[in-house]
Amino acid sequence: MNDFIFYFKMGLFHVLDFKAYDHILFLIVLAVVYQFKQWTKVLWLITLFTIGHSITLALSAYGILNVRADLIEFLIPLTIFITGLMNVLTAKKASVGKENQNLFFALFFGLIHGLGFSNYFKIMIGKTSDKFLPLVEFALGVEVAQIIIVLGILLIGALVQSIFSVNRRDWILIMSSIVIGFALQMMFDRVFW
């Protein structure tokens, strides 16, 4: 039970750590196109991101996949930038099918984000032969943290749109543009060539 709590908390705080805010920024640009009434799609969004994240984390933990850390550190903000840019370019059509694109981004870009934590995770589990349970426990922590973040994003979006009469398109444009600004700075800071 202590191992479960340890790995669960590591997954939880991996996402909720404001020093490692890239995860939160990615969740913002993924979720900003949704509304509360679309909770099933939001649940899929979160789960697909966790699945992508967990696949590459597992491949790395088992020594099957090894990618240069500096490349991954650059690719993570690039995924945030691309998702935010797509939000900006398609904000007008947000209510017509845009969410399906973000489901794809969640899974595919989740693969990249999983590699970002892989070296630390390998150190954390050490030479343990049983890597599967720690991976599952860690993924559950990530999933719960993402639910917390995404519910916060949806709640803030609903409040801003109703209290300040901001329309959905403008909300998507504003939030995505702010995140794009952060992502660009992160990309410039992490240039690896």
From TrEMBL:
This is HupE/UreJ protein. It comes from Tenacibaculum lutimaris. It comes from the Bacteria. Keywords: Membrane, Transmembrane, Transmembrane helix. Coiled coil: none annotated. The chain crosses the membrane at residues 20-36, 43-65, 71-91, 103-125, 145-164, 171-188. Pfam families: HupE_UreJ_2.
